[in-house]
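Handout, section B. The chain below has 344 residues.
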Amino acid sequence: MSKSGALDLASGLGGKIDKEEVKSAVDEYEKYHGYYGGKEEARKSNYTDMVNKYYDLATSFYEYGWGESFHFAHRWNGESLRESIKRHEHFLALQLGLKPGMKVLDVGCGIGGPLREIARFSSTSVTGLNNNEYQITRGKELNRLAGISGTCDFVKEDFMKMPFDDNTFDAVYAIEATCHAPDPVGCYKEIYRVLKPGQCFAVYEWCITDHYDPNNATHKRIKDEIELGNGLPDIRSTRQCLQAVKDAGFEVVWDKDLAEDSPLPWYLPLDPSRFSLSSFRLTSVGRMITRTMVKALEYVGLAPQGSERVSNFLEKAAEGLVEGGKKEIFTPMYFFLVRKPLSE
């Protein structure tokens, strides 16, 4: 059901941005980031514009390469990438204790791959919250094709100011999404507000680890590359995220960087030293072919001007992610399960 062909990729490039405006959108997006001299303050104060531009520009590439679920996963030996991604999603459902009939919120849901998998796995009703119109349009179509439009839906809104009443949801989760928040405490407070008392929130956060040295130029470059290629205002540390969720009022049940004991490295799909037929498009060879194809599509006018530059900054992100993973200064799966107290 996911878009898989070259023309599908070309038709989706730019998302809801007018095709004639893609190049200028790329210009504006790149200027936000430290890799091009941009400032963290500007990224945080303009996070809505920055993140929306990012997902309009990048979603078609993600869907072409990753499928419907845009995230990494803890992975066992002998397990395919697709299998590990599904298990990563099932793990969240099990940690939250999801049961049939529960009302669940997916914060920053992308095009809804995890939403659909978790809804089917747990027989729950899942609402996807997303502030990007193009992704919601894709998600609704994929929900229709999956036959779950009656139980799962999407809401377009900023997760810093959710349009839900207090104490609405039986469970809330986020998968590599709240890293886009300009203020983690504010984001977690909104999640706290809409979650019912006594219920849980589970999350996979993108974080820098204790091995990161802000005075190390190589570490700083890697961080800048990851922020550029993933639409992030800043990458927070695991300690900062844990303190932020406590400051929002939650009780911590448990937390762990799941990358630490993953039998296969989480960055393996992107590692240029490895090759896989099952996830070929994510390999260095597959990504090179995609970049060449996008360049050709842009040249003949089937892809908008600026598409090749999007492909290039996504490649820069892949390089930063692999290097950050190998140096153990970055993780995409700092996990914590927290509970909203029964009484405040």
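Note. Residues 30 and 36 are 7 Å apart (CA to CA). Compare this with the example in section A.
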